[in-house]
Amino acid sequence: MSVPCLQDQDWDTALDELKHLQAFIDDWTFGSSLQTLQQRTWLIHWSLFVFFNHPKGKDLIIEMFLYQKQYLNAIQTICPWILRYLATAVIIRGSRRNVMKDLVKVLLSLDVYDWNTFLNIMSLLSGDPGGGVHVL
């Protein structure tokens, strides 16, 4: 992503460049799967600024971080704190219930954090207080 498009707040151009970078990372062989994972991790971090400023960014962050296996794997393996940003996008967007449930399923699969309070909030926001998300 070029600095001028970010300084000018040209989010469409920044998103196009982000997509090109993503395609390059996904198509290129970096020598090892660890190096590819590291490149995806950098892209995840860099993409936050674009996603949270672009009008369609909340939908795109959900698609990339939650539904593209290789990026979800990178998040779960290297940077689980990024799930906070994903959850924020899901909440702000007012996502459909199945998206909320998919996110909760991912959060429950991680044993890194104490998600109890967070999951209770997600459950309430999904319109299903106490519905199916019980964490001890």
Explain this structure.
This protein has helices at 3-7, 11-27, 33-51, 57-67, 69-77, 82-93, 97-109, 116-125. With 136 residues, the chain is mainly α. It has one domain (3-125). Helix 3 packs antiparallel against helix 4 (57-67). The longest helix has 19 residues, at 33-51. It is globular and about 40 Å long. It starts with a helix and ends in an 11-residue tail after the last helix.
β-strand amount: under 5%
List segments where confidence is low: pLDDT < 50 over at least 5 consecutive residues: none
Shape: globular
Q: Estimate the helix proportion, in percent.
A: over 70%
Strand count: 0
What would you call the quaternary organization?
A: single chain
**Radius of gyration computed on alpha carbons:** 16 Å
User: What's the end-to-end separation, in Å?
Assistant: 43 Å
- Tally of alpha and pi helices: 8
Average predicted local confidence, pLDDT = 83
Helix-and-strand structural type: mainly alpha
Largest sheet: none
Total number of domains? 1
> H/E series, N to C?
HHHHHHHH
